[in-house]
From TrEMBL:
Name listed for the protein in its UniProt record: Iron transport multicopper oxidase fio1
Family note: Belongs to the multicopper oxidase family.
One term under GO cellular component: high-affinity iron permease complex
The organism's taxonomic lineage, starting at the top: Eukaryota, Fungi, Dikarya, Basidiomycota, Ustilaginomycotina
GO MF assignments: copper ion binding; ferroxidase activity
Residue ranges annotated for the Plastocyanin-like domain, each copy included: 31-151, 160-297, 393-517
InterPro entries: Cu-oxidase-like_N (IPR011707), Cu-oxidase_2nd (IPR001117), Cu-oxidase_C (IPR011706), Cu-oxidase_fam (IPR045087), Cu_oxidase_CS (IPR033138), Cu_oxidase_Cu_BS (IPR002355), Cupredoxin (IPR008972), CuRO_2_Fet3-like (IPR044130)
Domain of life of the organism encoding this protein: Eukaryota
GO terms, biological process: cellular response to iron ion starvation; reductive iron assimilation
Signal peptide range: 1-17
Documented EC number(s): 1.-.-.-
Keyword annotations: Copper, Glycoprotein, Metal-binding, Oxidoreductase, Signal
CDD domains, alphabetized: CuRO_2_Fet3p_like
Length: 559
């Protein structure tokens, strides 16, 4: 009752423009066939796949009550990719890190934006996505775009707003591929059967809806002379895309929710989990239609693995821009991607400047590896350690152990790869890859992108001393190279960082950043249903990562 009164009081005071509440039943849908090649069951929301995007304003209060309707005993969670969750870490949705997963038949109320529990209104807008964060469920379909419009007005003017969803598709379920092909001796890397591109209309203050069709059967409607914002979201399990439009110029204006100064480009490379917005000026003539391209990068599939199953994969997806003329022919005299130069996101400059964090209080180097056990089973590692999730969610460890213990990384588990940062300290993380490329996502934080080197033996010069570095939440670590990020530890809680290639995450390529645990202990007001759902699954709600009190060496069942 007190909670509902708090919400009512907040709205009475005019703190929020709208109370946007949704109820999502998550479960299986039969005969899903987006590529027209193979019907299979997939995960839907309220009986629908794909689900329409969520589109709100930055001063709205968004909460989604998620009901687990699988009916087969499997848990689930929901994560809003790129959201801060300031002071409400337990709504982040990372299974076994931010919460215990939702048991079958139970519900969890996610307060995603401007939660009254946070005690503040977030200053967050831009392009995001919602997806499952339990055992590859987004690979099976639990994913949809999430758009936050700036209630105070956008930085750039445009006439209309569309989202371009880029994803990949498998004919077998994630669990089958994981256990019967990938995480086994002599593994086969699971390459998708198809790439998918589809569109949604996401203009502010209008109901967001998907447009019909995928790939060649999808059309983006333009009118001559108008300016369009296209929001590109890569919601894939394993694919990176190069996006471009024949006969049209593009200016990047946003990266991962950060408004940036206009940056002209021919093609946008979108890593898994990344988002970009581009402004596109329509042509003055309606005579022709023009092809839209989303090219999947082949080097993302199975690098370093002996066996792959991707010979079938069509790498070049196409749709079209249509100006509405019946039987219009495709425009001619178009460029080819071989003539394009890929842009470097280090060159993007935020509109709203934040001074560069130049003197980190702590600097951590993490060697990223995809290795294998003695039996040949793939494992992902940071500094040689494969991530294994704690039994006790770290939030409950912080709440139940003493102030000294919760500053010790060991309490969060021998395989947590935990980095503990005191409140308001400046943290530098340097990721180094001895092998392939990886897209890394840090929950709950926008970091400053300080450096990315394709050759770690060379010094970084001009690009590493930018006064106004790009701030984002998902970054591509180049093959054989390094990337350096810095951020201030001002968001108390446990935040996962992981490779967003879902097969690498399944192999354990993950870690936790524990920000300000003493402050988290004081301020995080954990909802009562959180520990209740842990107990339903036999998971501990106190003590260290294994549920043992007062120890950094004995982890009970976790051992």
């Amino acid at each position: 009752m007190k909670f509902h009164l708090a919400i009512s009081a907040a709205f009475a005071a005019g703190a929020y423009a709208a109370d946007v509440g949704k109820h999502w039943k998550i479960g299986w849908i039969d005969n899903v066939n987006p590529d027209g090649k193979f019907p299979r069951r997939a995960i839907g929301i309220n009986g629908k796949f794909p689900h329409d995007p969520v589109s709100i304003n930055s001063n709205d209060f968004l909460h989604i009550n998620v009901s687990n309707a699988f009916g087969d005993g499997r848990p689930t969670t929901l994560h809003a990719h790129g959201l801060y969750y300031q002071n409400v870490n337990y709504f982040d949705g990372a299974a076994n890190v931010a919460q215990c997963p939702i048991p079958d038949g139970q519900s969890f109320n996610y307060e995603i934006l401007n939660s009254p529990r946070a005690g503040k209104t977030e200053s967050q807008w831009g392009t995001y996505w919602l997806h499952g964060h339990y055992k590859g469920q987004y690979t099976d379909g639990l994913r949809t775009p999430f758009i936050i419009h700036n209630a105070n007005g956008e930085v750039y003017d445009y006439d209309d707003d569309y989202t371009v969803a880029l994803t990949d598709w498998y004919h077998e379920e994630h669990g089958y591929l994981k256990h019967h092909k990938f995480l086994k001796p002599d593994p086969i890397y699971p390459t998708p059967k198809e790439g998918l591109m589809y569109f949604a209309h996401t203009k502010a203050n209008q109901t967001a809806k998907n447009l019909p069709g995928y790939n060649e059967n999808a059309t983006l409607p333009f009118e001559p002379g108008k300016t369009y914002r296209l929001r590109l979201i890569n919601m894939s399990a394993a694919s990176r895309f190069d996006f471009w439009i024949e006969g049209h110029d593009m200016d990047i204006i946003e990266a991962d929710g950060t408004d940036v100064k206009r940056f002209a480009t021919d093609v946008v490379q979108v890593g898994i989990g990344q988002r970009y917005s581009v402004l596109v000026k329509a042509r003055n003539s309606a005579e022709n239609d023009w092809r839209i391209h989303a090219d999947m990068e082949k080097d993302m599939y199975g690098g370093g693995f002996k066996h792959q199953d991707g010979d079938h994969l069509r790498l070049n997806l196409t749709s079209k821009v249509s100006y509405g003329k019946k039987n219009a022919k495709l425009g001619k005299g178009r460029k080819t991607i071989s003539t394009f130069k890929l842009f470097d996101d280090l060159l993007l400059e935020p509109v709203h400047k934040e001074s560069a964090e130049t003197k980190p209080d702590m600097a951590v180097t993490l060697m990223v590896g995809m290795n294998s056990t003695e039996d040949g089973i793939p494992i992902g590692t940071f500094n040689g350690t494969q991530f294994k999730a704690p039994l006790t969610p770290p939030i409950l460890t912080m709440k139940t152990e003493n102030d000294t213990a919760i500053m010790d990384p060991k309490i969060y588990g021998p395989n947590s790869n935990a980095v503990v940062a005191p409140y308001n300290s400046t943290v530098e993380l340097k990721l180094v890859s001895a092998g392939g490329a990886h897209p890394f996502h840090l929950h709950g934080t926008k970091f400053q992108l300080v450096e990315r080197m394709k050759n770690t033996s060379l010094p970084c010069t001009k690009q590493c001393s930018r006064e106004n570095p790009l701030r984002r939440d998902t970054v591509i670590l180049p093959a054989g190279g390094s990337v350096t990020m810095r951020f201030r530890a001002d968001n108390p809680g446990a935040w996962m960082m992981h490779c967003h290639m879902d097969w690498h995450l399944a192999a354990g390529l993950a870690m936790m950043v524990i920000q300000a645990p003493r402050e988290a202990k004081k301020m995080l007001d954990v909802p009562s249903y959180f520990p209740q759902q842990c107990r339903m699954q036999g998971l501990p709600v106190h003590g260290n990562a294994g549920g043992v009190r007062g120890s950094t060496t004995d982890f009970g069942r976790l051992n």
